[in-house]
């Protein structure tokens, strides 16, 4: 069985494998990056390591967060040994659903989200969308 770190975005519950999470940070001061894509929230200094902060709402095509609403940074490890911060609305629990609880994303999952979700898991009163963090952090560059 695998454990998943859960978080919410615009009423949706997402999960990423705990093994891919480096740490979770409450609201952080970000340095904006001029001319960066809207998905890039900015940069944060994580004990001397400069980490790109990705606005996951923008990446998933969800409406923007209220400017006064708190945010949480889920720092995930990248394949090259670095880290990227995913800006989310709220952190959830660590869950350990059985392997057979997962299935393919249904058609009711919005198209903008479905491309970055590998599987879904039915929870009590919610549907956890398993985010492909590696694909989510690949921000397309405008040409």
UniProtKB/TrEMBL annotation:
Pfam families given in the database record: CheW (PF01584)
Lineage, broadest ranks: Bacteria, Bacillati, Actinomycetota, Actinomycetes, Propionibacteriales
Annotated organism of origin: Nocardioides zeicaulis
Superkingdom of source: Bacteria
CheW-like domain boundaries: 1-142
Name under which the protein is recorded: Chemotaxis protein CheW
